[in-house]
Amino acid sequence: MNDQRADSMVIFGATGDLAMLQTYPALVSLVERGVLDFPIIGVGHHERSREYLRDYARKSLQRAGIDTRGQSAARLVSLLDYVAGDLDDDTTYQAISDRLGERRGTLFYLEVPPSLFGRIAEGIASVGRQRDSRVMVEKPFGTDLASARELSATMHKVFPEDAIFRVDHWLALESLENILYTRFANSILDPLLNERYVEHIEITMAEDFGVADRGAFYEQTGAIRDVLQNHLLQLLVSVLADEPRLGVRTWRSERTRAMQELRPLRAHEVVRGQYVGYRDVDGTAPDSTVETFVAVRLTSDSPRWSGVPIDIRAGKCMPVTATELTIRFRPPARDVCGIENFGQMNELRFRVRPETAMTLTLAGKRPGIAARAQTEELTFAQQPGLDPRPYDRLIGAALDGDDFYFAREDSVDAAWKVVDPVLGDAAPVHSYQPGTWGPGEADSLLPDGVTWHDPTA
Ligand SMILES: NC(=O)C1=CN([C@@H]2O[C@H](COP(=O)(O)OP(=O)(O)OC[C@H]3O[C@@H](n4cnc5c(N)ncnc54)[C@H](OP(=O)(O)O)[C@@H]3O)[C@@H](O)[C@H]2O)C=CC1
Ligand SMILES: O=C1O[C@H](COP(=O)(O)O)[C@@H](O)[C@H](O)[C@H]1O
Question: How many CB atoms lie within 10 A of CB 189?
């Protein structure tokens, strides 16, 4: 693969939900930045006109609060073309190739049902369009370790690894970049991030909504595949990974190593839950055991994190929508100030969703005659709304051939290895009421005396 900018783009699934929600708003921002000014061919299954796709894009922009009469929006819409066809049929790829004409160096964006990913790669190759091109592939990449490997092997028959851009949109979140900066733009924090100082690491990902109209998708997926294998393990390794000593470009390698050092989960390290009402959602089975909540206890084999318990929980229909990663430090070796009764005091917290923030909890003296401690929080908060949208970054980077925000094959493989043993019904599923923090059984994973962090607090 070359590192030249793409000169054309083909979107498979241009009339889908994700395109409506994310793709067109991101494309406008790229037009606005002057980095996108070439034909974009949208591909869908149904016979429709180019005008239909242009209207679809306008609706998407309106939905995102973007003025469709603005210069960039109008330009984007004018760049869109439409090809209809079944992606299981080689003539569809011939039609796309004819439309691309002399252009070489195409970014093919695969936002279609994952079962089509491999077939599309073969279709692109059948018309010789893989040369000098890249593919950007949506999640999920596989449904377990074996299928992810099989898919990688199929894709590699057509594209070298450096031409495959696997999307995990959390990798492009401002809040994940903030973790990198916080750790390595300060000299005072990273030296503390190891088993000597850290007592416990915890992540809570709470969403106050259910599976909505995605019942059929979720029924095949569940929380482990949907968010643990990808978003949450990628978030975790942002904290576990060693410094990228050879420069920030090696950050993906360090993160991958940290992923490979995580031990595969065992059934007793997993608690699964399902909210009451899930089985009434269209597309779910009346006796479904798919989890909408998962809590896990993880262990890293890295000497840096030896013996540090790592707990993660994620759920739908929780009391709030927020994701935070909390690092709890050990108490001081000698309790000179008599803080014992205070419990745990030093914490470093990264807020990942809905906005970017970081908090360091320190103890100081409570003003007054009595010798008593009190905690203070130092918070570095981003103003909500200032975070760039992840897809603006992702599509822009893929057009440039910049793989920084994408999940590499070995890291996806390592993440599947962690969750593979506990997919399906390896652990029983407990029901929980919507609006609660999930089944109480999740508490049993935590170290004695520790409670889950409440991200609303
Ligand atoms: N929706 C979301 O919020 C998210 C989605 N994703 C991933 O993005 C991908 C797409 O999801 P989503 O947009 O929700 O899916 P949708 O079902 O909404 O859209 C699917 C798209 O693929 C096209 N398509 C489906 N089958 C064929 C076929 N045989 N031949 C040609 N075109 C076909 C459809 O065309 P037509 O309209 O003509 O039927 C449509 O454009 C999936 O991998 C999903 O996991 C990832 C994160 C979030
Ligand atoms: O990929 C997914 O992610 C979202 C959470 O990501 P966010 O960017 O919306 O916070 C999750 O709700 C969804 O179930 C999952 O498919």
Answer: 15
What is residue 1's predicted lDDT score, i.e. its pLDDT? 45
Q: Is the distance from the beta carbon of residue 413 to the nearest atom of ligand 2 less than 6 Å?
A: no
DSSP state of 215: H
Say which CATH superfamily domain 8-138 falls into: NAD(P)-binding Rossmann-like Domain (3.40.50.720)
pLDDT over threshold 50, residue 87:
yes
Q: Which residues make Cβ contacts (< 8 Å) with residue 292, sequence separation at least 6? A: 210, 211, 218, 222, 223, 273, 274, 275, 278, 315, 316, 317
- Answer yes or no: is the C-beta of 111 below 6 A from any ligand 1 atom: yes
Domain boundaries, the chain: 8-138, 171-388+408-445
Residue 120: pLDDT over 50: yes
Q: Average of pLDDT values for 188-203?
A: 97
8-138 against 171-388+408-445: fold identical: no
pLDDT, tens digit, 9 for 90 and up, residues 388-398 = 899 999 999 99
Identify the active-site residue in 231, 268, 430, 453.
Answer: 231
Read off the pLDDT of each residue in 225-232 and give the average, rounded to a whole number: 98
Fold of 171-388+408-445: Dihydrodipicolinate Reductase; domain 2 (3.30.360)
Q: Pick from 408, 137, 142, 393: which is nearest to 258 by CA?
A: 408
Q: Is 34 exposed, middle or buried (0-12, 13-18, 19+ CB in 10 A)?
A: exposed
State which ligand 2 atom lies nearest to the alpha carbon of 353. 10
Mean pLDDT of the chain: 95
Complex ipTM, two decimals? 0.97
Question: Which residue's CA is the nearest one to ligand 1's atom 25?
Answer: 112
Q: Measuring CA to CA, which residue among 375, 378, 376, 326 is closest to residue 352?
A: 326
Rounded to two decimals, the pTM is 0.95
Confidence of residue 3 (pLDDT cuts 50, 70, 90): confident
CB 177 near ligand 2, within 6 Å: no
**Among the bound ligands, the one closest to the CA of 138:** 1
**Ligand 1 touching residue 139 (CB < 6 A):** yes
For 399-430, the DSSP string reads HHT--TTSB-HHHHHHHHHHHGGGSTTSS-EE
What is the helix (H) or strand (E) element at residue 296, kind and residue range?
Answer: strand 293-298
Mutate to test the pocket of ligand 1, among 12, 15, 18, 389 (most ligand atoms within 8 A of CB): 18
- Please, are residues 120 and 108 in contact by the beta-carbon 8 Å criterion? yes
- Asked whether residue 421 carries a pLDDT value surpassing 60, the answer given is yes
Q: Is the CB of 261 under 6 A from ligand 2?
A: no
Cα(226) to centroid(ligand 2), Å: 8
pLDDT at 343: 67
Q: Note if 453 is an active site residue.
A: no
Distance between Cα 87 and ligand 1 center (Å) = 12
